[in-house]
Amino acid sequence: MSHHPITATLESFVNGDLPAGEVRAIVEHLLGGCAVCRRRVLDRAPFLADGWLADGDPGGGGGAEHEAAYDEAIRRAVDGVLLHGDRVLDHKARTRRLLAILRRTAGVSEHRLTPHRGRRPALYEAYLARSWELRVEDPQRTVVFARLACRLAGDLGQDGYTARQVADFEARAWGELGNALRIAGHYAEAESTLMQAFDHWAAGSRAARLRNRLFELSASLQGALKRNREAIATLTLVHAMCLEDGDRHGAGRALMSKALFTSYAGEPLAALALLREGLAAIDRRREPELEAIGLHNELLFLVDAGSFREARRFLWQHRARLVEGEGRLQRTRLTGLEGRIHAGLGELERAERCFRAARSGFEEDGLALPASTAVIELAAVCMRQGRWEEASELGERAADTFMAHGIQGEGLMAVVTLQKAFELRLATSVLVETVAAFLRRHENDASARFEIRIA
User: 419-439 pLDDT, tens per residue?
Assistant: First the structure.
């Protein structure tokens, strides 16, 4: 930075509102010896005077020692702003400030932060909140922040918490770490981590809501392992426990999760009923995102049930909310659902456009198998339009992709059936659509069985 930062920029720096790159630029400028800007910062944040903004060059030269000192200065810069929050704000506000710091200094020094007495509880909350925020866009960093929370949880006794309270903190953190590991695809470690979370829970106050949360996370792992019947049984238990505890919102959320696994088990109408019951029970102010999840799942269940006209009306009514704040992957999935609606209503040209767009979207995100399923759905549309050769080429290409990615069991049987049907010129649009539907289900249900339908 060759010029003095403007006053608004320095104020944002002190408040923790700058992106990571700008934080580094400001710190580098201040460490470069700009007495004017140091004084401007100290006027706004005098608590930094006893740390990295003291007179003198903390680097002391060049090379590795200078780089280490520079990293330490970054750490102390962030630490200083965290300390400021601790001195003047209540616990919830401190947590929000800490979360803002973690979010805006990603990749700078978050793993080097050394919490002090009084700041650990808010930093613990911030780590868990940041882990949850990253679950879709960066699963691996979701794991990193959950691990940080686990490490910090064991030290909370130094802040005056009892052994049972510390065990509760540990149970929650280990549970969220297990969930993060599931999201990142580390299923074996996720299972052992959740078992540790239950051990911590047993050593703590045995709070009912924490217990229910751990069972919910266990159900999510069972679903990821395609053990949908186990997940449904676990969530039935969670629902009953929540009702017993008077937690109507938790009971509704359990029903919504149960609905998803019921759909994965091939019962979309039963899933739809569970979802609507769950949505009626939740407190939307408590978890606003649940309503958006419910909208997406209701559309999915309507399409899976073959209720295409109702699904189209639902999509028209809720499209703005379905796409609001969603990432590219979710929009791609929505496009695929729209393609299935058009195909189900016989609107083949619209269906073709949607399936081509969905294929491109999945390919851009490196998701070869969902992209190949979209290709199979596109092949079925081409067959219904009389473009048999193009459909055959698309179907065989998709089958090759599934084979290359090591699909097994009933999924392999479905793909081989499709491949042979095209080779022998026995493929029909009904068969191709059946294979596509099965592969969608097989992605989430290990017990699914493929039934051949030629005509």
Answer: 888 888 888 888 999 999 888
